[in-house]
Amino acid sequence: MAGGELFHRGHGTQTLPLLRSSHTRYLSLYLTKLTNPIRYVLREQRILFFFIGISISTLILNSFPSFPPSHHQIPPLLLRSDSTHSTHPVSYYHHAAGGKVLLGLKRKALRIVVTGGAGFVGSHLVDRLIARGDSVIVVDNFFTGRKENLMHHFGNPRFELIRHDVVEPILLEVDQIYHLACPASPVHYKFNPVKTIISFLKTHRFATVNKTNVVGTLNMLGLAKRVGARFLLTSTSEVYGDPLQHPQVETYWGNVNPIGVRSCYDEGKRTAETLTMDYHRGAGIEVRIARIFNTYGPRMCIDDGRVVSNFVAQALRKEPLTVYGDGKQTRSFQYVSDLVEGLIRLMEGEHVGPFNLGNPGEFTMLELAQVVQETIDPNAKIEFRPNTEDDPHKRKPDISKAKQLLGWEPSVSLRNGLPLMVSDFRQRLSGDRKEVGAIASVVSN
Ligand SMILES: NC(=O)c1ccc[n+]([C@@H]2O[C@H](COP(=O)([O-])OP(=O)(O)OC[C@H]3O[C@@H](n4cnc5c(N)ncnc54)[C@H](O)[C@@H]3O)[C@@H](O)[C@H]2O)c1
Q1: What is the CATH number of the domain that holds 377?
Q2: pLDDT tens-digit map of 85-131
Q3: Which residues form the NAD(P)-binding domain (predicted)?
């Protein structure tokens, strides 16, 4: 008890100060020995610490690809190019998956070719690439694409547009190739199905889709090999055909009719995937494969036969919504900004794929028609028509792989995305009406 008091109060017997002073000396000697090397290391090895710091931040970025804020906090349609800067401060979320950018450092601007960049998906991708400071070359033959989709970049020194058909070779010095060029809608690919499998029918009118998929993809892979660029193929959920497995996982090989009216597209994309993997294995090209599920948004072709654009255009024109079959077949609909984020993460990441990029929310055609009615016109009528050949009954992506390896998942729901598309369609359709009106008045004068 007394000892306890002495100890706590700090006075009393002589033995304690003696003990304490020897302890203190021992401790300070020990600390000097200990701190000297630390001081030495801190003073002399600052550079080493600097690099260790950088490595730790890089490790954190790699380990938490979804850590950064979602891109959806930036409205996709507000992203515009800034022609005054060739390099931009790093938006760290852009490269989290690739882990190539160090926190706080400026990344080197890349030269990127986007084939099919004047189309629906391509033009949104170009917006994002230009906005982050890269130089973009669009290669497009305007089969389904439109200059209007890219006009806001005209005059930007970091943007170039080349009218070119990818079935012919082209040489460009680039770091990355996003290969999107391909008519993606049934109306267009069924119009010209044989440009589809190989170039022997080069001059034949019915030769477009497979030729584009096979010869076009070969040409772009050849370019990637020649200039050492990374190559990303936009494949499709159509490679699963009318799937016997639901939802579809990347390991599923599909159930495709090789001789049906849709085969030019399905088999063309399957062959494009094969070529991509063969170039990867055989020539060491860095490749990425995305399997895209139904995507919608502003700038889609208005009359392209795809279900979302069909319904929206019909409702705006006060026509009945045409549902094929009983309307119970299901699809998943992904908003375009979600897809673009997935494509960029895939390109910048370390994984070849294939990766499913789609929204797992599943709707029947009738449910979709209802959402369109709610958004545009509650009185819009629904009209049933016989189903088209080989129309898949079910489609829904399993996106676990993309979630896990790319830190990606869609975040725009159909009810939030559809109004953005509707206002774009409304504007374009009223523009069409004005144009028709102007022509009519010129003719009548
Ligand atoms: N939008 C979707 O729902 C969806 C789904 C699955 C896959 N994809 C794939 O994504 C890519 C882009 O699709 P999208 O919806 O933007 O289609 P889109 O038709 O709007 O765009 C395709 C673009 O490629 C161009 N093109 C076509 N053939 C060409 C050729 N031979 N040479 C040069 N340019 C050519 C067109 O002019 C157009 O600009 C396509 O490869 C498509 O197969 C899209």
Answers
A1: 3.40.50.720
A2: 333 333 333 333 334 555 556 778 999 999 999 999 999 999 999 99
A3: 114-419
